[in-house]
Amino acid sequence: MTKVAVFGAGSWGTAFATVLANAGNQVSVWARRESLCAAINADHENADYLPGLRLPEAITASHDPAAVVDGAEAVFLTVPSQSLRDNLTDWAGVLPNAVPLVSLMKGVELGTTKRMSEVIAELTGAGPERIAVVSGPNLAREIAEGQPAAAVVACADEGTAARLQKLCHSPAFRPYTNNDVVGCELGGACKNVIALAVGMAVGLGFGDNARASVITRGLAEIARLGTALGADEHTFSGLAGLGDLVATCSSPLSRNRTFGEKLGQGMTVAEIAGATRQVAEGVKSCASISELAHHHDVEMPIAEHVTRVVAGEMTPKDMLFSLVSRSAKSERWG
Ligand SMILES: NC(=O)c1ccc[n+]([C@@H]2O[C@H](COP(=O)([O-])OP(=O)(O)OC[C@H]3O[C@@H](n4cnc5c(N)ncnc54)[C@H](O)[C@@H]3O)[C@@H](O)[C@H]2O)c1
Ligand SMILES: O=P(O)(O)OC[C@H](O)CO
Protein backbone atom coordinates (compact mmCIF):
# COMPACT_ATOMS: atom_id res chain seq x y z
CA MET A 1 0.00 0.00 0.00
CA THR A 2 1.36 3.45 -0.91
CA LYS A 3 1.81 5.85 1.99
CA VAL A 4 0.99 9.53 1.50
CA ALA A 5 1.11 12.52 3.85
CA VAL A 6 -1.46 15.30 4.25
CA PHE A 7 -0.45 18.43 6.19
CA GLY A 8 -3.55 20.13 7.58
CA ALA A 9 -6.56 18.51 9.24
CA GLY A 10 -9.22 21.13 8.54
CA SER A 11 -12.19 20.48 6.27
CA TRP A 12 -10.23 20.00 3.08
CA GLY A 13 -7.23 18.17 4.51
CA THR A 14 -9.60 15.67 6.11
CA ALA A 15 -11.85 15.35 3.04
CA PHE A 16 -8.89 14.90 0.69
CA ALA A 17 -7.37 12.34 3.06
CA THR A 18 -10.64 10.43 2.61
CA VAL A 19 -10.23 10.58 -1.19
CA LEU A 20 -6.67 9.29 -0.89
CA ALA A 21 -7.73 6.50 1.47
CA ASN A 22 -10.62 5.52 -0.80
CA ALA A 23 -8.12 5.38 -3.67
CA GLY A 24 -6.23 2.68 -1.76
CA ASN A 25 -3.49 4.64 0.04
CA GLN A 26 -2.35 4.62 3.67
CA VAL A 27 -2.81 8.28 4.71
CA SER A 28 -0.92 10.02 7.49
CA VAL A 29 -2.37 13.40 8.44
CA TRP A 30 -0.58 16.19 10.34
CA ALA A 31 -2.86 18.16 12.66
CA ARG A 32 -1.91 21.26 14.63
CA ARG A 33 -3.63 20.13 17.82
CA GLU A 34 -2.69 16.86 19.53
CA SER A 35 -6.24 16.54 20.88
CA LEU A 36 -7.57 16.42 17.31
CA CYS A 37 -4.99 13.74 16.37
CA ALA A 38 -6.12 11.63 19.33
CA ALA A 39 -9.79 12.03 18.35
CA ILE A 40 -9.14 11.09 14.71
CA ASN A 41 -7.14 8.02 15.74
CA ALA A 42 -9.59 6.86 18.40
CA ASP A 43 -12.97 7.81 16.94
CA HIS A 44 -12.24 7.99 13.17
CA GLU A 45 -14.00 11.33 13.07
CA ASN A 46 -12.92 14.97 12.76
CA ALA A 47 -15.77 16.40 14.79
CA ASP A 48 -14.44 19.96 14.57
CA TYR A 49 -14.54 20.19 10.77
CA LEU A 50 -16.57 17.28 9.38
CA PRO A 51 -18.88 16.23 12.22
CA GLY A 52 -20.86 13.03 11.84
CA LEU A 53 -18.70 11.51 9.10
CA ARG A 54 -16.77 8.30 9.78
CA LEU A 55 -13.25 8.45 8.33
CA PRO A 56 -11.66 5.41 6.66
CA GLU A 57 -9.42 3.23 8.89
CA ALA A 58 -6.50 3.92 6.54
CA ILE A 59 -6.31 7.48 7.88
CA THR A 60 -4.16 8.13 10.95
CA ALA A 61 -3.19 11.49 12.46
CA SER A 62 -0.08 12.80 14.20
CA HIS A 63 1.24 16.12 15.44
CA ASP A 64 4.83 15.07 14.61
CA PRO A 65 5.75 16.18 11.05
CA ALA A 66 8.68 13.74 10.85
CA ALA A 67 6.42 10.79 11.64
CA VAL A 68 3.82 12.01 9.14
CA VAL A 69 6.26 12.16 6.19
CA ASP A 70 8.13 8.96 7.09
CA GLY A 71 7.84 6.70 4.02
CA ALA A 72 5.40 9.02 2.23
CA GLU A 73 5.52 8.99 -1.58
CA ALA A 74 3.72 12.34 -1.90
CA VAL A 75 3.06 15.25 0.45
CA PHE A 76 -0.22 17.19 0.20
CA LEU A 77 -0.35 20.64 1.82
CA THR A 78 -3.63 22.19 2.94
CA VAL A 79 -3.28 24.86 5.60
CA PRO A 80 -4.63 28.42 5.30
CA SER A 81 -2.69 30.16 2.51
CA GLN A 82 -1.51 32.99 4.73
CA SER A 83 0.11 30.56 7.20
CA LEU A 84 1.86 28.34 4.63
CA ARG A 85 5.16 30.29 4.74
CA ASP A 86 5.46 29.92 8.53
CA ASN A 87 4.37 26.28 8.41
CA LEU A 88 6.90 25.37 5.73
CA THR A 89 9.62 27.13 7.70
CA ASP A 90 8.79 24.84 10.62
CA TRP A 91 8.64 21.71 8.46
CA ALA A 92 11.62 22.47 6.19
CA GLY A 93 13.92 20.05 8.00
CA VAL A 94 11.63 17.05 7.65
CA LEU A 95 10.02 17.36 4.21
CA PRO A 96 11.43 14.66 1.91
CA ASN A 97 13.54 16.04 -0.93
CA ALA A 98 12.48 13.71 -3.73
CA VAL A 99 8.70 13.33 -3.58
CA PRO A 100 5.99 15.58 -5.08
CA LEU A 101 4.76 18.49 -2.95
CA VAL A 102 1.12 19.16 -3.77
CA SER A 103 -0.79 22.32 -2.95
CA LEU A 104 -4.48 21.83 -2.20
CA MET A 105 -4.78 25.51 -1.21
CA LYS A 106 -6.65 28.35 -2.93
CA GLY A 107 -5.09 31.65 -2.00
CA VAL A 108 -2.48 34.26 -2.91
CA GLU A 109 0.01 35.42 -0.29
CA LEU A 110 -0.44 38.93 1.11
CA GLY A 111 2.63 41.12 0.81
CA THR A 112 4.42 38.99 -1.82
CA THR A 113 1.42 38.27 -4.14
CA LYS A 114 2.86 34.77 -4.55
CA ARG A 115 0.79 31.75 -5.49
CA MET A 116 1.07 28.77 -3.14
CA SER A 117 3.27 26.82 -5.57
CA GLU A 118 5.65 29.79 -5.62
CA VAL A 119 5.79 29.86 -1.81
CA ILE A 120 6.48 26.10 -1.80
CA ALA A 121 9.26 26.52 -4.38
CA GLU A 122 10.83 29.39 -2.43
CA LEU A 123 10.75 27.68 0.96
CA THR A 124 11.67 24.12 -0.06
CA GLY A 125 13.86 24.67 -3.12
CA ALA A 126 11.81 22.04 -5.01
CA GLY A 127 11.78 22.35 -8.80
CA PRO A 128 8.63 22.63 -10.94
CA GLU A 129 8.77 18.92 -11.77
CA ARG A 130 8.04 18.20 -8.11
CA ILE A 131 5.43 20.87 -7.33
CA ALA A 132 1.79 20.22 -8.19
CA VAL A 133 -1.65 21.65 -7.53
CA VAL A 134 -5.04 19.96 -7.13
CA SER A 135 -8.03 22.23 -7.77
CA GLY A 136 -11.63 22.05 -8.94
CA PRO A 137 -15.26 22.14 -7.77
CA ASN A 138 -14.59 20.31 -4.51
CA LEU A 139 -16.68 21.37 -1.53
CA ALA A 140 -15.16 19.42 1.34
CA ARG A 141 -18.32 18.07 2.92
CA GLU A 142 -19.64 16.64 -0.37
CA ILE A 143 -16.26 15.04 -1.16
CA ALA A 144 -15.96 13.53 2.33
CA GLU A 145 -19.46 12.07 1.96
CA GLY A 146 -18.29 10.30 -1.20
CA GLN A 147 -20.45 12.30 -3.59
CA PRO A 148 -19.10 12.20 -7.17
CA ALA A 149 -16.80 15.01 -8.30
CA ALA A 150 -13.91 15.80 -10.61
CA ALA A 151 -10.77 17.91 -10.26
CA VAL A 152 -7.54 18.86 -11.98
CA VAL A 153 -4.03 17.74 -11.00
CA ALA A 154 -1.68 20.33 -12.46
CA CYS A 155 2.09 20.01 -12.73
CA ALA A 156 4.69 21.21 -15.22
CA ASP A 157 5.89 17.61 -15.39
CA GLU A 158 3.39 15.28 -17.05
CA GLY A 159 4.84 12.20 -15.36
CA THR A 160 4.40 13.70 -11.89
CA ALA A 161 0.85 14.79 -12.75
CA ALA A 162 0.01 11.29 -13.99
CA ARG A 163 1.44 9.64 -10.84
CA LEU A 164 -0.57 11.97 -8.61
CA GLN A 165 -3.68 11.43 -10.73
CA LYS A 166 -3.38 7.70 -10.07
CA LEU A 167 -2.86 8.27 -6.34
CA CYS A 168 -6.13 10.19 -5.93
CA HIS A 169 -8.40 8.51 -8.50
CA SER A 170 -11.09 6.93 -6.33
CA PRO A 171 -14.54 5.52 -7.23
CA ALA A 172 -16.09 8.94 -6.50
CA PHE A 173 -13.25 11.32 -7.40
CA ARG A 174 -12.08 11.77 -10.99
CA PRO A 175 -8.85 13.77 -11.44
CA TYR A 176 -7.76 15.10 -14.85
CA THR A 177 -4.15 16.12 -15.51
CA ASN A 178 -3.17 19.57 -16.75
CA ASN A 179 0.21 21.28 -17.16
CA ASP A 180 -1.14 24.79 -16.48
CA VAL A 181 -0.19 25.30 -12.83
CA VAL A 182 -0.62 29.09 -12.99
CA GLY A 183 -4.12 28.90 -14.46
CA CYS A 184 -5.33 26.20 -12.06
CA GLU A 185 -4.02 28.06 -9.02
CA LEU A 186 -5.41 31.43 -10.06
CA GLY A 187 -8.79 29.90 -10.93
CA GLY A 188 -9.01 28.45 -7.41
CA ALA A 189 -7.85 31.57 -5.58
CA CYS A 190 -9.82 34.13 -7.60
CA LYS A 191 -13.16 32.30 -7.52
CA ASN A 192 -13.21 32.78 -3.74
CA VAL A 193 -13.25 36.55 -4.26
CA ILE A 194 -16.02 36.33 -6.85
CA ALA A 195 -17.98 34.08 -4.44
CA LEU A 196 -17.75 36.84 -1.82
CA ALA A 197 -19.35 39.25 -4.30
CA VAL A 198 -22.06 36.74 -5.23
CA GLY A 199 -22.72 36.11 -1.55
CA MET A 200 -23.17 39.84 -1.00
CA ALA A 201 -25.76 39.94 -3.79
CA VAL A 202 -27.58 37.00 -2.16
CA GLY A 203 -27.42 38.62 1.29
CA LEU A 204 -28.90 41.81 -0.12
CA GLY A 205 -31.80 39.82 -1.51
CA PHE A 206 -30.90 40.26 -5.18
CA GLY A 207 -31.90 37.51 -7.59
CA ASP A 208 -30.40 35.25 -10.21
CA ASN A 209 -29.64 37.98 -12.76
CA ALA A 210 -27.28 39.68 -10.33
CA ARG A 211 -25.62 36.37 -9.40
CA ALA A 212 -25.17 35.24 -13.00
CA SER A 213 -23.82 38.64 -14.02
CA VAL A 214 -21.20 38.61 -11.25
CA ILE A 215 -20.22 34.99 -12.00
CA THR A 216 -19.87 35.63 -15.73
CA ARG A 217 -17.95 38.89 -15.43
CA GLY A 218 -15.97 37.29 -12.61
CA LEU A 219 -14.82 34.56 -14.98
CA ALA A 220 -13.83 37.23 -17.51
CA GLU A 221 -11.59 39.01 -15.03
CA ILE A 222 -10.07 35.77 -13.69
CA ALA A 223 -9.16 34.77 -17.27
CA ARG A 224 -7.79 38.26 -17.95
CA LEU A 225 -5.42 38.03 -14.97
CA GLY A 226 -4.50 34.43 -15.70
CA THR A 227 -3.58 34.96 -19.34
CA ALA A 228 -1.56 38.05 -18.39
CA LEU A 229 0.44 35.79 -16.06
CA GLY A 230 1.01 33.15 -18.73
CA ALA A 231 -1.91 30.78 -18.09
CA ASP A 232 -3.75 28.98 -20.90
CA GLU A 233 -7.17 30.62 -21.42
CA HIS A 234 -8.77 27.16 -21.87
CA THR A 235 -8.01 26.35 -18.23
CA PHE A 236 -10.64 28.89 -17.20
CA SER A 237 -13.44 27.04 -18.98
CA GLY A 238 -12.35 23.82 -17.23
CA LEU A 239 -12.83 22.35 -13.76
CA ALA A 240 -10.34 24.66 -12.02
CA GLY A 241 -11.97 27.70 -13.66
CA LEU A 242 -15.67 27.69 -14.50
CA GLY A 243 -16.29 24.44 -12.60
CA ASP A 244 -15.00 25.70 -9.28
CA LEU A 245 -16.48 29.16 -9.80
CA VAL A 246 -19.98 27.76 -10.37
CA ALA A 247 -19.77 25.32 -7.44
CA THR A 248 -18.50 27.91 -5.00
CA CYS A 249 -20.83 30.70 -6.08
CA SER A 250 -23.88 28.39 -6.02
CA SER A 251 -23.37 26.47 -2.81
CA PRO A 252 -24.49 27.38 0.70
CA LEU A 253 -21.61 25.07 1.79
CA SER A 254 -19.07 27.60 0.47
CA ARG A 255 -17.44 29.56 3.28
CA ASN A 256 -16.64 32.42 0.89
CA ARG A 257 -20.16 32.74 -0.46
CA THR A 258 -21.57 32.49 3.08
CA PHE A 259 -19.13 35.16 4.30
CA GLY A 260 -20.28 37.45 1.50
CA GLU A 261 -23.92 36.72 2.27
CA LYS A 262 -23.40 37.83 5.87
CA LEU A 263 -21.66 41.00 4.67
CA GLY A 264 -24.67 41.63 2.45
CA GLN A 265 -26.94 41.20 5.48
CA GLY A 266 -25.05 43.94 7.30
CA MET A 267 -22.54 42.09 9.48
CA THR A 268 -18.94 43.34 9.64
CA VAL A 269 -15.82 41.39 8.63
CA ALA A 270 -14.74 41.20 12.28
CA GLU A 271 -18.14 39.92 13.42
CA ILE A 272 -18.26 37.20 10.74
CA ALA A 273 -14.63 36.12 11.19
CA GLY A 274 -15.07 36.04 14.97
CA ALA A 275 -18.01 33.64 14.68
CA THR A 276 -16.21 30.88 12.71
CA ARG A 277 -13.03 28.84 13.01
CA GLN A 278 -13.03 28.16 9.25
CA VAL A 279 -10.97 30.02 6.69
CA ALA A 280 -12.66 32.00 3.89
CA GLU A 281 -9.56 32.57 1.77
CA GLY A 282 -11.05 35.32 -0.39
CA VAL A 283 -11.26 37.70 2.57
CA LYS A 284 -7.44 37.97 2.59
CA SER A 285 -6.69 37.09 -1.02
CA CYS A 286 -8.94 39.82 -2.45
CA ALA A 287 -6.21 42.33 -1.55
CA SER A 288 -3.28 40.25 -2.86
CA ILE A 289 -5.15 39.42 -6.07
CA SER A 290 -6.04 43.10 -6.62
CA GLU A 291 -2.38 43.97 -6.06
CA LEU A 292 -1.25 41.26 -8.47
CA ALA A 293 -3.68 42.61 -11.09
CA HIS A 294 -2.39 46.13 -10.51
CA HIS A 295 1.25 44.98 -10.98
CA HIS A 296 0.32 43.41 -14.30
CA ASP A 297 -1.90 46.28 -15.44
CA VAL A 298 -4.97 44.01 -15.51
CA GLU A 299 -8.45 45.36 -14.83
CA MET A 300 -10.26 43.33 -12.12
CA PRO A 301 -13.15 45.53 -11.04
CA ILE A 302 -14.99 42.90 -8.99
CA ALA A 303 -11.87 41.93 -7.01
CA GLU A 304 -11.03 45.60 -6.46
CA HIS A 305 -14.56 46.40 -5.26
CA VAL A 306 -14.62 43.36 -2.94
CA THR A 307 -11.30 44.53 -1.49
CA ARG A 308 -12.84 47.90 -0.70
CA VAL A 309 -15.86 46.31 1.01
CA VAL A 310 -13.62 44.02 3.09
CA ALA A 311 -11.53 47.06 4.07
CA GLY A 312 -14.71 48.81 5.22
CA GLU A 313 -14.45 51.51 2.56
CA MET A 314 -17.70 50.66 0.77
CA THR A 315 -21.00 48.90 1.51
CA PRO A 316 -21.97 45.74 -0.39
CA LYS A 317 -24.95 47.55 -1.95
CA ASP A 318 -22.80 50.45 -3.16
CA MET A 319 -20.31 47.88 -4.48
CA LEU A 320 -22.86 46.15 -6.71
CA PHE A 321 -24.36 49.37 -8.07
CA SER A 322 -20.90 50.87 -8.56
CA LEU A 323 -19.90 47.82 -10.64
CA VAL A 324 -23.00 48.06 -12.81
CA SER A 325 -22.81 51.83 -13.32
CA ARG A 326 -19.18 51.92 -14.51
CA SER A 327 -18.66 53.33 -18.00
CA ALA A 328 -20.12 51.00 -20.64
CA LYS A 329 -17.78 48.85 -22.75
CA SER A 330 -17.85 45.92 -25.15
CA GLU A 331 -18.06 42.35 -23.84
CA ARG A 332 -14.76 40.67 -24.54
CA TRP A 333 -12.18 38.48 -22.82
CA GLY A 334 -9.15 40.64 -23.51
N1 LIG B 1 -13.04 23.30 2.50
C1 LIG B 1 -13.11 23.10 1.19
O1 LIG B 1 -14.19 22.74 0.66
C2 LIG B 1 -11.89 23.29 0.33
C3 LIG B 1 -11.86 22.68 -0.93
C4 LIG B 1 -10.76 22.86 -1.75
C5 LIG B 1 -9.70 23.65 -1.31
N2 LIG B 1 -9.76 24.23 -0.07
C6 LIG B 1 -8.61 25.03 0.36
O2 LIG B 1 -7.87 24.29 1.32
C7 LIG B 1 -7.17 25.18 2.18
C8 LIG B 1 -7.45 24.80 3.61
O3 LIG B 1 -8.84 25.03 3.83
P1 LIG B 1 -9.76 24.18 4.77
O4 LIG B 1 -11.08 24.12 4.13
O5 LIG B 1 -9.16 22.90 5.17
O6 LIG B 1 -9.83 25.20 6.00
P2 LIG B 1 -10.40 24.96 7.44
O7 LIG B 1 -10.68 26.30 7.99
O8 LIG B 1 -11.49 23.95 7.41
O9 LIG B 1 -9.17 24.31 8.21
C9 LIG B 1 -7.95 24.98 8.29
C10 LIG B 1 -6.96 24.09 9.02
O10 LIG B 1 -5.74 24.79 9.17
C11 LIG B 1 -5.40 24.83 10.54
N3 LIG B 1 -4.72 26.07 10.79
C12 LIG B 1 -5.23 27.29 11.07
N4 LIG B 1 -4.24 28.18 11.24
C13 LIG B 1 -3.08 27.49 11.10
C14 LIG B 1 -1.73 27.84 11.18
N5 LIG B 1 -1.34 29.08 11.47
N6 LIG B 1 -0.81 26.88 10.96
C15 LIG B 1 -1.19 25.63 10.66
N7 LIG B 1 -2.45 25.23 10.58
C16 LIG B 1 -3.39 26.16 10.78
C17 LIG B 1 -6.70 24.69 11.30
O11 LIG B 1 -6.45 24.19 12.60
C18 LIG B 1 -7.42 23.69 10.42
O12 LIG B 1 -7.00 22.39 10.68
C19 LIG B 1 -7.64 26.59 1.80
O13 LIG B 1 -6.70 27.19 0.96
C20 LIG B 1 -8.94 26.34 1.04
O14 LIG B 1 -9.22 27.35 0.08
C21 LIG B 1 -10.82 24.06 0.76
O1 LIG C 1 -15.85 26.83 1.13
P1 LIG C 1 -15.03 27.62 0.18
O2 LIG C 1 -15.69 28.91 -0.25
O3 LIG C 1 -13.62 27.82 0.69
O4 LIG C 1 -14.91 26.77 -1.17
C1 LIG C 1 -14.50 25.44 -1.08
C2 LIG C 1 -13.89 24.90 -2.34
O5 LIG C 1 -12.80 25.68 -2.75
C3 LIG C 1 -14.87 24.70 -3.47
O6 LIG C 1 -14.23 24.08 -4.56
From TrEMBL:
<comment type="function">
    <text>Catalyzes the reduction of the glycolytic intermediate dihydroxyacetone phosphate (DHAP) to sn-glycerol 3-phosphate (G3P), the key precursor for phospholipid synthesis.</text>
</comment>
<feature type="binding site">
    <location>
        <position position="106"/>
    </location>
    <ligand>
        <name>sn-glycerol 3-phosphate</name>
    </ligand>
</feature>
<feature type="binding site">
    <location>
        <position position="279"/>
    </location>
    <ligand>
        <name>NADPH</name>
    </ligand>
</feature>
<dbReference type="GO" id="GO:0005975">
    <property type="term" value="P:carbohydrate metabolic process"/>
</dbReference>
<feature type="binding site">
    <location>
        <position position="255"/>
    </location>
    <ligand>
        <name>NADPH</name>
    </ligand>
</feature>
<comment type="pathway">
    <text>Membrane lipid metabolism; glycerophospholipid metabolism.</text>
</comment>
<protein>
    <recommendedName>
        <fullName>Glycerol-3-phosphate dehydrogenase [NAD(P)+]</fullName>
        <ecNumber>1.1.1.94</ecNumber>
    </recommendedName>
</protein>
<feature type="domain" description="Glycerol-3-phosphate dehydrogenase NAD-dependent N-terminal">
    <location>
        <begin position="3"/>
        <end position="159"/>
    </location>
</feature>
<feature type="active site" description="Proton acceptor">
    <location>
        <position position="191"/>
    </location>
</feature>
<dbReference type="InterPro" id="IPR006109">
    <property type="entry name" value="G3P_DH_NAD-dep_C"/>
</dbReference>
<keyword id="KW-0521">NADP</keyword>
<feature type="binding site">
    <location>
        <position position="33"/>
    </location>
    <ligand>
        <name>NADPH</name>
    </ligand>
</feature>
<keyword id="KW-0963">Cytoplasm</keyword>
<dbReference type="InterPro" id="IPR008927">
    <property type="entry name" value="6-PGluconate_DH-like_C_sf"/>
</dbReference>
<dbReference type="InterPro" id="IPR011128">
    <property type="entry name" value="G3P_DH_NAD-dep_N"/>
</dbReference>
<feature type="binding site">
    <location>
        <position position="281"/>
    </location>
    <ligand>
        <name>NADPH</name>
    </ligand>
</feature>
<feature type="binding site">
    <location>
        <position position="12"/>
    </location>
    <ligand>
        <name>NADPH</name>
    </ligand>
</feature>
<dbReference type="GO" id="GO:0046167">
    <property type="term" value="P:glycerol-3-phosphate biosynthetic process"/>
</dbReference>
<feature type="binding site">
    <location>
        <position position="11"/>
    </location>
    <ligand>
        <name>NADPH</name>
    </ligand>
</feature>
<dbReference type="GO" id="GO:0046168">
    <property type="term" value="P:glycerol-3-phosphate catabolic process"/>
</dbReference>
<feature type="domain" description="Glycerol-3-phosphate dehydrogenase NAD-dependent C-terminal">
    <location>
        <begin position="180"/>
        <end position="320"/>
    </location>
</feature>
<feature type="binding site">
    <location>
        <position position="49"/>
    </location>
    <ligand>
        <name>NADPH</name>
    </ligand>
</feature>
<comment type="similarity">
    <text>Belongs to the NAD-dependent glycerol-3-phosphate dehydrogenase family.</text>
</comment>
<dbReference type="GO" id="GO:0006650">
    <property type="term" value="P:glycerophospholipid metabolic process"/>
</dbReference>
<feature type="binding site">
    <location>
        <position position="140"/>
    </location>
    <ligand>
        <name>NADPH</name>
    </ligand>
</feature>
<feature type="binding site">
    <location>
        <position position="254"/>
    </location>
    <ligand>
        <name>sn-glycerol 3-phosphate</name>
    </ligand>
</feature>
<keyword id="KW-0444">Lipid biosynthesis</keyword>
<feature type="binding site">
    <location>
        <position position="136"/>
    </location>
    <ligand>
        <name>sn-glycerol 3-phosphate</name>
    </ligand>
</feature>
<dbReference type="InterPro" id="IPR006168">
    <property type="entry name" value="G3P_DH_NAD-dep"/>
</dbReference>
<dbReference type="GO" id="GO:0047952">
    <property type="term" value="F:glycerol-3-phosphate dehydrogenase [NAD(P)+] activity"/>
</dbReference>
<feature type="binding site">
    <location>
        <position position="140"/>
    </location>
    <ligand>
        <name>NAD(+)</name>
    </ligand>
</feature>
<feature type="binding site">
    <location>
        <position position="106"/>
    </location>
    <ligand>
        <name>substrate</name>
    </ligand>
</feature>
<dbReference type="GO" id="GO:0051287">
    <property type="term" value="F:NAD binding"/>
</dbReference>
<keyword id="KW-0443">Lipid metabolism</keyword>
<keyword id="KW-0547">Nucleotide-binding</keyword>
<dbReference type="Pfam" id="PF01210">
    <property type="entry name" value="NAD_Gly3P_dh_N"/>
</dbReference>
<feature type="binding site">
    <location>
        <position position="106"/>
    </location>
    <ligand>
        <name>NADPH</name>
    </ligand>
</feature>
<feature type="binding site">
    <location>
        <position position="255"/>
    </location>
    <ligand>
        <name>sn-glycerol 3-phosphate</name>
    </ligand>
</feature>
<dbReference type="GO" id="GO:0005829">
    <property type="term" value="C:cytosol"/>
</dbReference>
<feature type="binding site">
    <location>
        <begin position="255"/>
        <end position="256"/>
    </location>
    <ligand>
        <name>substrate</name>
    </ligand>
</feature>
<keyword id="KW-1208">Phospholipid metabolism</keyword>
<keyword id="KW-0520">NAD</keyword>
